[in-house]
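Structure record:
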Amino acid sequence: MKQSDKEIFLQLIVGNIIFAVIAIVLLNITSSKNIFVSITHLFSLQEGVFSLIVGLVGFFAVSLYTFIVIKAGKGYFPNTKGSNVIVQLVNNKELSLIGIVLLPSILEEFLFRGVIQPLMIEMFNPFWGVIMTAFLFMLVHISDQYKGQPFLLFHTFWLGIITGVAFMITENLWASIMIHLLNNYWSVKKIRDGEIGIQY
């Protein structure tokens, strides 16, 4: 049975709310600061121009991989239920803007770069902290739209590494949010334009 756009969108909203709740709980447990102070620090606009520059450079690094994969003919989704759901949602401009571009860029970065990555760095070291967080980020995104398609799955891992490095450099979430947001917007555009499609 085909899901409606609203059902798909609702699932995305619920998933993002879960990410936000997990992030707040983990931050509350692990941070020595007040939760409000911790969140304010993560979303600080103090180094806004620097974060903007790092975000643009990071997006270039992520989009270069996507460009190469598309040009090599490897930028496609397998013909699965998950792929069809993604393509269906992308074709709804308003829902995809909120459910794929905006919310995940903010809330996933809050959880993975803002909360999990500092924990991983504390447990291991900066190098392995970024790698482990990117790996967890990739694992969370594994679904059947990546079945037999390692190039797109590795893209998620690469996105996690680049956003992780951006967060380490800037010490706030705006650069990583910007990279994630631009990446998701660009991916949505490529799917909508037929450059990334379902391989039947």
Observations:
- The radius of gyration is 17 Å.
